[in-house]
Amino acid sequence: WKCSQCWRMDPRAAIPVIKKKLVGSVKALQKQYVSSDTVVTSEDGDANTMCSALEAVFIHGLLAKHIRAETGGKRKKSAHQKPLPQPVFWPLLKAVTHKHIISELEHLIFVSTDVGRCRAWLRLALNDGLMECYLKLLLQEPARLCEYYQPTALLRDAEEGEFLLSFLQGLTSLSFELSYKSAILNEWTLTPLALSGLCPLSELDPLTASGTELQRKESLDSISHSSGSEDIEVQHSGHKTRRNRKLTASSLSLDTASSSQLSCSLNSDSCLLQENGSKSSDPYRSEEPMSYDSDLGTTNADDSDPSLQE
Predict the structure, then answer these.
(1) Which residues fall in a compositionally biased region of kind Polar residues (predicted)?
(2) Distance CA 149, CA 97 (A)
(3) Which of 56, 89, 109, 140 could join 192 in a cystine, given CB atoms 3.0 to 4.6 angstroms apart?
(4) For the whole model, what pTM was predicted?
(5) Neighbour count for residue 80 (Cβ, 10 Å)
(6) Burial readout 283-302 (b: 16 or more C-beta within 10 A, e: otherwise)
């Protein structure tokens, strides 16, 4: 990306920017949702900001060999639109993810790139209440992190890693139903790239107005067919029925690329979902059928105007 070649940001300077966005968005979500049973969806602006900040956590300090010039997606770009750098860390995420989750993400109909799988993984981890657990597993593998990140990266800073783990515990008070099957996830947006230091923060200014448009597009794309299933995921703002999910330590620790670390770390209470059915899932992700009553087209002759009857 041309701008990133002529502009360099101190990697350390990006860390407080990411943390500020993350803390602010999570506090706003807690204030709005913690005292209610309403789930957090992709239609919430603070939820999208939180996702961008978490994406920036994984992008920050990524080695150049893991940053592609193009994502490989099929979305058409206008002539004046500059291509954005496309960081990819999907193989790293797969190392700590259960194989049935990997299979689901790799067979989503509308998510067709590794960038999209990274972004879908993050939202699905939030839905399942496993973000803290996944992060703990990654931090326990410094050798693997060295293959992907510079020494100054946020994920390779021990103190920052401890901060993230303790802070993510606050997400246990929230229930998420974020859209993770949308084609809009196939490419990075500017916000997480700017927060992580891959492009200037000033580039976000002209896109402030378009943030609402992006949020609206994500909510429209949230109605999508699930891969390998005949179910259709339908989200309504703030009123979606909770899905009962159940992931136990034994089921999550089976058949992963790093099963020894996973089964060991899952003995900790912090990696178990303690509220029955509120955030965990069963491996088959069955969608609870939803019924809709239509009030359209039910007018009868008795209720009609006499002149219309004639």
Answers:
(1) 296-310
(2) 19
(3) 56
(4) 0.67
(5) 5
(6) eebeeeeeeeeeeeeeeeee
Give the torsion through C-alpha atoms of 281, 282, 284, 289, to 10 deg.
-70
Residue 36 DSSP label: S
Name the residue with tokens 């059928």: 289
**177 sits in which H/E element:** strand 176-177
Give kind and range of the element (H or E) at residue 68.
strand 67-68
pLDDT of 113 above 90: yes
Cβ(278)–Cβ(242) below 8 Å: yes
Amino acid at position 138, single letter: L
Mapping DSSP to helix (H, G, I), strand (E, B) and coil, where does residue 180 land? coil
| Tokens matching residue 80 | 């004046």
pLDDT of residue 9: 64
* CA–CA gap between residue 73 and residue 183 (Å, rounded): 9
Tell how far CA 134 is from the center of its chain. 13
Question: How high is the pLDDT of residue 129?
Answer: 95
State how far Cα 137 lies from the chain centre: 18
